[in-house]
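Inverse folding, one chain.
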């Protein structure tokens, strides 16, 4: 761990913590300062001027990254009959109903995202206490409770990411891998940035985007000039 700490300290020296970087500069610098010996995830964090205790200032949704995330998501679909066949045809990794609910109750979690048809939500609700804390509960706001299972599976496989403001008003979202071309990461960043901008609650007062930073797994944070990025 000491070796990793030294690497991070050296990487952090390359970042001017007082400076707001352009999107292009920030992404290039985040990649340059990646300290791990695997293909790190590049992530963006938005600190927003919202009061998440108020229902009209909750922010939650999903966005499809134009260049994907660099990770293939394993999709479990809860559906019956024709909708189950449709999910299989769309390329879902697992499709079923009560059988998979039983498996999850027994501790099976070899999947990344759950999609459920609305008629299955009564059953899925039985394992809500297990799924909720892991962030796996399907939700209409993120497009994972739907009868259009083909669209849902296709979008997840193409690189759909869910975002949600935590209690402190911070949203974390992956925008790809350090091995991606800078242009692809910039394009993914802009897609997420514009989505979060549009999600501003009308009830939010004052500065909306307080800070935007980009990081890689275990790498230093690089601050982005949000005002410039918005232009």
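Residues assigned per position:
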């Amino acid at each position: 761990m000491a070796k990793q700490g030294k690497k991070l300290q050296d990487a952090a020296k390359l970042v001017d913590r007082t400076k707001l970087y352009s999107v292009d500069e920030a992404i290039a610098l985040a990649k340059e300062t990646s300290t791990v010996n695997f293909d790190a995830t590049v992530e963006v964090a938005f600190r927003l001027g919202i009061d998440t205790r108020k229902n009209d200032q909750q922010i939650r949704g999903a966005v499809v990254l134009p260049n994907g995330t660099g990770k293939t998501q394993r999709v479990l679909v809860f559906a019956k009959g024709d909708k189950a066949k449709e999910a299989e045809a769309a390329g879902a990794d697992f499709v079923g109903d009560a059988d998979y609910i039983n498996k999850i109750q027994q501790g099976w979690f070899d999947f990344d995202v759950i999609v459920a048809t609305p008629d299955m939500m009564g059953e899925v609700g039985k394992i809500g206490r297990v799924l909720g804390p892991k962030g796996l509960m399907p939700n209409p706001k993120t497009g994972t409770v739907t009868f259009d299972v083909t669209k849902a599976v296709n979008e997840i496989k193409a690189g759909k990411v869910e975002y949600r403001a935590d209690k402190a008003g911070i949203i974390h979202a992956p925008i790809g891998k350090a091995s991606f071309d800078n242009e692809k990461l910039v394009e993914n960043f802009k897609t997420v940035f514009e989505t979060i901008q549009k999600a501003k609650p009308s009830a939010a007062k004052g500065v909306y985007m307080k800070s935007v930073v980009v990081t890689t797994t275990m790498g230093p944070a690089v601050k982005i000039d949000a005002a410039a990025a918005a232009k």
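The chain has a mean pLDDT of 92. The chain is about 35% helix and 20% strand.
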